[in-house]
Amino acid sequence: MAANERAGAGRAASAPLLGRHEEPTLFELSVPGRRSASFRTTDMPAWSAEELVPGEHLRSEPVEVAEVSERDLVAHFTRLSHRQYSVDLGAYPLGSCTMKYNPKVCDQVAALPGLAGIHPAAPASATQGWLELLAGLEAALCEITGMAAATLQPAAGAAGELTGLLLMRAWHDARGEARSRVIIPDSAHGTNPASVTLGGYEVTTVASDDRGCVDLATLASVLDTDVAGIMLTNPNTLGLFEEDIVEIAAAVHQVGGLLYYDGANLNAILGVTRPGDMGFDIVHMNLHKTFATPHGGGGPGAGPVAVSPRLVPFLPGPRPVLGPDGRYDWAMPERSIGRIHTWHGNALVLARAYAYILANGGDGLRRVADAAVLNSNWLRHRLRGLYDIPFDRPSMHEFVASTSTLKKDTGLRALDVAKRLLEEGFHSPTVYFPLIVAEALMIEPTETESPQTLEALAQALERIAAEAAGPGGLEAATAAPRTTPVGRVDEARAARHLIPTWDGRPG
Amino acid sequence: MLGFMGLSSLEELYSAVPEALRLGAGLDLAPGLSEPDVLARFEELGARNRDLICFAGAGAYDHDIPAATRALAGRSEFVTAYTPYQPEVAQGVLQALFEFQTLLCRLSGTAVSNASLYDGASACVEAVNLASATRGRAEVWVSQGVHPHWRAALATFAAGTGHELVVAPLVDGVTRWPDQGTPGALLVQSPNFLGCLEDLGAARARADAAGALLAVAFDPVSAGLLRTPGEQGADVVVGEGQALGVALGFGGPYLGLFSCRADLVRRLPGRLVGETVDGEGRRAYVTTLRAREQDIRREKASSNVCTNQTLMAVTAAIQLGWLGTAGLRELALRCARGTRYCREALLAIDGVAPASGAPTLREFAVHVPGGAAAAIERLADDGFLAGVALADGFESTPYEGALLVAVTERRTRAEVDAFAAALEKAVR
User: Fold this and answer.
1) Which of A461, B101, B401, B406 is 20 to 30 A removed from A236 (C-alpha atoms)?
2) Portion 189-208 of B in contact with A at CB < 8 A
3) How many CB atoms neighbour CB B182 within 10 A?
4) Contact present, A245 and A279 (Cβ < 8 Å)
């Protein structure tokens, strides 16, 4: 083991998290008569179910849930938690997902009774603290993105995208224009084209040029007055900054289209440059990426959408606004597209993000971008010669490597690297994305990993590549992971013989 | 690190960013705060939200959250994990989701459930999208008893999908369906927004006659006492899952519930966990039927959902495990008892009248002298959140201006008595 690993880089493989015995389901643990639940004393009249529910609605038997003691319940879910990798355990270099460390102070903020215990329909007069919080976050997000106003309602990035497309539609509708197409580069996230379809538009895909960016001539060839707008991620999913962004914006605006900024990669440009200054009209942010709110195993997220001044009247509502009397109230923008969320968005996620912004401040957010870009570029340099780096020039917060050469020489695929890394105690990078790179390993180290951790990750990747070239190396790689609770999972069988519930098991 | 790359300054990392676009002066935000200062700032904001005894519901219910649920749902392995793209190191979240899906199917009486959507509104939107695509029809009948904010969200998203929404009015608290039309879907909520129990058999019959799918929004706590929507003929069952151990949190994060008949599974939106085996035959879980999802189907996908509310689904599974078979029934019963007691106490006040005569379970609507909005403001001064005022979505109906009141197992008889006395004083 290298000295710098001993010195400062732990790995999740050293933790006793991953035994290899099956964990029974809650239903197998159930024993008739056991229970955990207890209820407060209320002195309410003890009316029976028959007295309270009309017979035609009343169920005859209780819903079979499970019957477990609190002790068994706690043991079960604690054992499940030990079968789960997480940011708190170690590096999670999933490209485009921005799996940075989630500061604990934000957990404490989200648990404050004065925030967590408040009903969403309580009147503005009783929730001034929440309205001020939301308005403060909105203002900070607008400063960070260079936009005029924002909605905090979208619950995730994809919800933000669809919100943005409906804003685009409302803008063109208000001008009496019926446009039908939205342009997306071939390197875009899958949510982009799906959102375009749900927004009622057709997708026009433009191929990236040999530098991995939007080609101005190709773009010009698909631009006309039928184009409602373009959706761009900048830096893009290759981790490359779209150097021609000013010219792209001018060309799209020239035909009356709008520019949509997919904020999945906003982390890279905090305090460096702003989508508003680049010419974007609509910006969504993934607060669970850039602003460090925890991903929760796949959610909750939050996907606020900020817009330029001309789109403000169309924003979803109601929005918190400060009145002349110094008090906040809810207001519906005059030409609002309507409501996106049942209430005000994922409010406790929004509070966490605001706490992260206040803790970092303007100067700290710039340092976030600096360290994220530094780490990414360092690792790209470090992996040169070990893996292919198809676009080997200064990247932003992430870069894409590939096992194309290794696959040709040894048979090692990106998937094998991913599974071997799990044995090494690291989460894998994003694999097979973006689609335009074969055997892609999309690596985003984030700003929160130390140089020692990056070196340990690089050494693991180095070992994997070297092993594959040696005798029996490929067999070892394709057998991975061997130290995790389960080995390589049969995904084809899961789809072919669908078992979606415990009750849906055959026999 | 810079030296290793042959660079001399951090600024050189941004060589691809055009000079003209760079922020010379940095962001106009205050300097960073220390941890204690951050906490003090949010404690101060929290102190300006009034701590009121809660009689409001409307899909967000003030239930007790047990210590075990808080502790388990707060485990950082669940909280700080990503989407389970590498199933070998995500069996914890995947198995918890599999258990959640199983529990939700038992509650809703359906065969398949996804791993959650954003909230009740998004679940309704996805139900309508599924039904409409299945039937190939744009027309959708939506009961006026569906949460008005969900109806508003349906209208927002219909601008993109082109769905034509027809509102079926409430008559004495329950839905009256149109006689004519060719809808692809009927969407009804039971108990509905006014707390009234709907006739799902009638909705099924109307859907059959029209050749439409029936989508039912249900309440997972009331499910402890009520027949399932599935056994009454629902094709799709949706709902808001907040009541299953999730904090009020000013409206989020909550979780959208979505389940359906087995034969609709290929149109199911969002993530689905299935059981399978690993190479050595050990039981394992994985997200499955991935070909439905946006990252594979791209513009041909019928839903764009990616991130969902996994942590809330895990929380709901834990909470249901804590409640157990007897506890879920008892919770529903306790809510119904408190609601009955409170309804009788409020109706005993001079000038307070029921908004409908239909049977209710955990929530009810009454007309109060001076209107609900004024009563809510007045009662806040007495320390009560009196309920929710029926306004948007009920314009020019007999329910406009009514007060929607919910009573959970947390409310004591003494609190209800004090609340009724305060309301009586306020409307006198």
Assistant:
1) A461
2) 197
3) 11
4) yes
